[in-house]
Design goal:
The relative contact order is 0.09. With 142 residues, the chain is mainly alpha-helical. Helix content is 69%, strand content 0%. Helix 2 crosses helix 3 and helix 3 runs antiparallel to helix 4.
Amino acid sequence: MKCFYVLNCINNKTLRQFVQQALNCGEAYHQLRKAIASINGNQFRGGNDYLVEQWNDCARLIANCIIYYNSALLSSLAEKFEADNNQQTIDMLTHLSPVAWRHIQLAGHYTFGTNKNNIVLEKLLENVESLVNEEVALNQVA
């Protein structure tokens, strides 16, 4: 069975591209986890196996929250551009990965309280939308 898969990979360019794309997604996730782990000087966390496992679970949760947040942003942008019939921008959005963290302050000091002022996604998207429009305009020039 493995021989047939290897031969199919050699023969099928589309399959090779899908496999490479999947490997890239996995690598991006591991880079995000590494960025989260490097916070606080990449110091070892935990004095025993239980604490190390707990830290790893927390790091996975943080990574998954970042991916969810990015997915919500990309989905909202896609809906907005679909409503505007802006197919070129939608095509560009399909090449973006939700595994990105350059816009997230990982090493910040966060205070969680009872303040009910939640982030308004629409206001956040206004800034992102202008950046996406600028990127599309630059791509048209190039």
